[in-house]
Amino acid sequence: MAWEHLRPGSSPVDWCEGNYIVSSNIAEFVNTISNFLFILLPPILMCLFKDYGRFVTRGIHLVWALLIIVGLSSMYFHATLSLLGQLLDELAILWVFMAAYSLFCPKRYYPKFCNKNRRVFSILMFISAIMATGLSLWKPIVNAFVLMGMGVPTMVMLYKELKRVRDQRVYRLGLRSTAVWLIAVFCWINDRMFCDVWSAISFPYLHGFWHVFIFIASYTVLVVYAYFYVENELPQRQPLLKYWPVDEFEFGIPFISIQNPGAHYKSGI
Q1: Could you report the per-residue pLDDT of 40-61, keeping only the tens digit for each?
Q2: Which of 42-46, 138-142, 162-166, 191-195 is the least confident region?
Q3: Which parts are annotated binding residues for Ca(2+)?
Q4: Does residue 11 sit within a domain?
Q5: Given this model, what pLDDT does residue 265 score?
Q6: Three-state SS for 82?
Q7: What is the rounded distance in angstroms from the CA atom of residue 116 to the CA atom of residue 68?
Q8: 244 — phi, psi (to 5°)?
Q9: What range does the domain containing 220 cover?
Q10: Residue 2 counted as domain residue
């Protein structure tokens, strides 16, 4: 049975793009290669967030590493359309969500029993991830819709936090992230639900565009949440949103610079 899950085409999910058209070895060629940003950009982000990892939390590098795993898993899934590939892809996304929530979810949104304790909340997220992993293996057909739904509270919290933020560059990045996320969702829904329409105009490639747009939305949202974390819990470190390679160009690669890394929290008591 385990070997059956490795068999090409064993997944119940098949996206709009035609199979084995470009290559006899790759089922969905565009959907496979469109994951390139998941592989190329996280190593750059690890370098840009080196000080953040050193002075705020090393967990940021775990999130970037998990994005690479998402990209590799998605490439394997779309290249083979195997059930194992589908599960690896979806579980990698699930663990990105849980890791990001554990690290950066603002404490004001914690359940009351967590008592605004990040360690308790992180344990809750870990247990939830384990349970969700089991459910994903049990009913893989619903995984994609559940994961899409998890993006909604993420963006709702982002909207609420942007109303509090004072840095206009962070505010603008948050708005751009939201716009790109909406475009990504549009691509995913149309590829999934209206394949006949897009195939009729010879453009069954919206899922490939989903990969590009959702990566851009995901990493920029993570950057904004990383800023919120420092601003809310370690303001003495003085977070600053910057862009690489040219800071004045706001469509470059955003990252959070720590202006006062040696600062320690001083209690007013």
Answers
A1: 999 999 999 999 999 999 999 9
A2: 138-142
A3: 14-15, 17, 19, 28
A4: no
A5: 46
A6: coil
A7: 31
A8: -115, 140
A9: 29-258
A10: no
